Sequence to fold (121 residues):
Amino acid sequence: MRREVKGWLDKAKEDFNTAQDCLTSKHFDASAFHAQQAAEKSLKALQIQLHGRFDKIHDLASIAKSVDSPNEIVNCCIKLAPYYVVTRYPDVGEPISKETTKELLDESMKVVKWVSQRLKL
Fold:
């Protein structure tokens, strides 16, 4: 695995661990944000591996489609995508519940695991 790819995947896993820690400490917005970031960074690692570059966008579904993700992964990305914005601004969206945060962590884990499996090919 290329060093750059490994760096992006390592950051994705770090974001996922941070999301778990934030869930435990009841910082649900931060947890949701880091769950989204884990998915985004892992997909960008795969883009680098496959295309030699990554898209400088935050549209997870588009990034997922660019690496031929199955529908399940694209759907995970669609669920995660809004949390790049709604978690960072106080006037966007409703408060995020513990249950929603847990669901987002599950979706993020699916993406990170799928990418990790693809990168081992």
